[in-house]
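Before going further, it is useful to explain how the protein records used in this thesis are read. An example of such a record is reproduced below.

***
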Amino acid sequence: MNHYKDLLITSDTNTPAFTESDFPLDWSMTRNERYGFIHVLQHIKPKISIEIGTYNGGSLQVISKYSEKVYAIDTDPTIVERLGSKFKNVEFLIGDSKAIVPQLIQDLQAKGDSIEFALIDGDHSSEGVAADIKNLLDYKPVKSLHILLHDSFNPRCRKGMKIYNYNNNKQVHYVELDFISGVFNPDNLNRQMWGGLALIIMLAEKRSTQLQIHQSQLKLYNIAYKHSIHFMKNTLSFLKPIVRLFRK
């Protein structure tokens, strides 16, 4: 997965990066994702943030700058040695986010601490994305909680983002799968779809109306999907049982 992200950045030059001189670490996001990411954190200035998926610390350097405290969750034990000395307000939690997040939320809620920002960018399987969403949305916000989800333009990740029944959670007030659009890579990524940021907002007060799940770039997504390797693979998977029948 990280290999694909490296190729994604190669296909979208991020220089000159006028607003990013404070963030030197390798950052696996396109320019529009970076600008949106920075703006959201500048606006919120979270008391406590959670990052699921750290990699080289690119997004973490932004979260750390604008947050009082950050919990960075990753399965890679080397990140503590690689990044630990770079951040004074970050606590690294190594292991599976599906096990770590529920316990972390329980501990923070017991202390009355307010989680105000989270990034989901870890397990990119549909099931992994869905599990991270569910675990974070079990939180009962004291103030607003903004959750950004990376790679919402990838079909597998997007599917995971659509599994959760947001209408059943009355503290979810806003869901936009295309807060920042993703990219279609016809060349070095073999027609794959990556990038994009989805946004979920939770509030302390309960929602009294039906929630609309926004997909403001759905037409763009559908056009890219029809020309993507993801569509071809799904089509081949669908046709395999039919081919087997004719071979009998």
Notes: Strands lie at 48-52, 69-74, 90-94, 115-120, 145-150, 172-185, 192-202, 213-214. The first strand starts at residue 48 and ends at 52.
